[in-house]
Specification:
Layout (H helix, E strand, L loop, with lengths): L11 E5 L2 E6 L2 H23 L2 E5 L6 H8 L10 E5 L1 E3 L9 H10 L18 H15 L12 E5 L23 E6 L4 E6 L1 H6 L3 E5 L5 H7 L21 E5 L8
Parallel strand pairs: 2-10, 3-4, 3-6, 6-9, 9-10
Antiparallel strand pairs: 1-2, 5-8, 7-8
Helix pairs in contact: 1-2, 2-3
The structure holds 6-phosphogluconic acid.
């Protein structure tokens, strides 16, 4: 962690089951630090291998981070950046539920991202077809051999109050999938289907960052960052990458993490 010193540093840095847990006084300090760290990683990746492949998280938590990145004082190498989505709701890009819509409103609509390098999951299409098409797009763009998994440079994730991440919910079929990059996932408790990257795809990422802010995440963080390991019950615990996974929390969310 090396963002510039005049920005508010973490209040706590912990290790939990091989993961790094970085806690900030509030969401603003977290977002500022994470955005700077992300901009540096993006430039390093372009220096190293000519491009930065970045997977966006959905839900509400990452919105402020996206806005901060689009804010203009951070220079991302957009000309060499590919933007992917970790999951999507089965709705069109203009639907209030759409993760694409959220990311577009917060960042992609103002940032100089190349349209051809923003890879949207087609939530409005037949889910099975949309999942296969997105897999094919990843295989092409990342020049993967058959059966290979992409090594995205950075995958952003959130965590639901039930321990789900991306759209890998407890007890859903996609959790057991090992031979696909992206699948449609029937989520009975929400009476809906989602599109989601699979656990092997998340785990093949070079870096995975998990964000959680606010008091409503206290209970689940106490569980998933506690001593009990149960990735079937709390799918987010299944995310393990070559580098330590980094949890970005504010003190409000981390109140139960000791
Ligand atoms: C989604 C997300 C999902 C999200 C969590 C947390 O499409 O909903 O990808 O995994 O990250 O549900 O959501 P919040 O950030 O809104 O708490």
């Amino acid at each position: 962690m090396s963002a510039a010193s005049e920005h508010r540093a973490p209040t706590r840095v912990l290790q939990r089951s091989g993961a790094l847990v970085v806690v900030f006084a509030d969401a603003e300090a977290l977002v500022d630090y994470a955005a700077r760290e992300l901009a540096m990683i993006a430039s390093d990746c372009v220096d190293e291998h000519g491009r930065f492949d970045w997977v966006l998280a959905g839900g509400s938590t990452p919105e402020d981070l996206y806005r901060r990145i689009a804010g203009g004082d951070l220079s991302l190498p957009w000309a060499r950046t590919h933007v992917w989505f970790g999951d999507e709701r089965c709705v069109g890009p203009d639907d209030p539920q759409s993760n694409y819509r959220m990311a577009h409103a917060a960042m992609l609509g103002t940032a100089p991202a190349r349209a051809a390098a923003v890879h949207r999951m087609k939530g409005e299409q037949d889910p099975a077809r949309a999942a296969r098409d997105y897999e094919a797009e990843i295989r092409r763009a990342c020049q993967l051999s058959a059966g290979g998994f992409p090594a995205f440079d950075l995958t952003l994730l959130g965590v639901g109050e039930d321990g789900h991440t991306a759209s890998l919910f407890p007890g859903t079929p996609a959790l057991a999938v090992r031979d696909r990059i992206v699948v449609e996932n029937a989520v009975a408790k929400l009476a809906t289907t989602r599109l989601t990257m699979t656990m092997p795809t998340l785990c093949h990422s070079r870096r995975a960052w998990i964000f959680a802010v606010g008091a409503r995440k206290v209970a689940i963080l106490k569980d998933v960052l506690g001593a009990t390991r149960d990735a079937a019950r709390w799918p987010v615990q299944g995310v393990r990458t070559a580098r330590p996974v980094v949890w970005w929390l504010d003190e409000a969310a981390a109140a139960g993490v000791v």
